[in-house]
Amino acid sequence: MTRLPRFASAPLHARRRTRLIAGACSLTAALALGGCNNFSGEEQRQADVIGSFYRIHIKNNAPGLPSAEELKQYQPLVSRALYTLLTQAEAADARYHAVAGTQAPPIVEGDLFTSLYEGATSFSVKSCDTDDVRSSCQVSFQYKKDGAQEAWNDKILLVREDDQWRIDDIEFIGNDQSSQREYLTDTLTDAIKEAE
């Protein structure tokens, strides 16, 4: 853990003010609305979609493919193409287990929506690069649990549909620890093929 230097020459009220600002930034980051970044209106809407998606995902804390009930929660936040791929993968997994039995491993193991197999315990939207209909947002993730700690970035790709931003794909950047293919859509497509 990196320790920040303490500056004895700084007045006590200045150090307290700095701690208050840092605390406000930490609280905002915990709410996953982009830390202390000053997003434009469009970037804030994108950060809100990403924040809603990952709050649901972290709360559900379910590895592998989302269940039909979880898919309903994600539907307003993902593109039609990604939703179709997710429902096809969930149906392929159900068909596979109907034949192979419930003891067979799932067709997708580990966390589906982040680079780390164990998933994330927190996240923060760092920046978004946007044109008229597409956007690419850098998201910082952390996993802290049972003494283990990891930090990494993934890239969330959004598309504008029906005048709303929706998640269209995820590029798994990670720190060479990704349990997935390079893109979420590749992982889902491969899982559907393997289940046939």
TrEMBL record:
It comes from the Bacteria. This is DUF3828 domain-containing protein. It comes from Herbaspirillum frisingense.
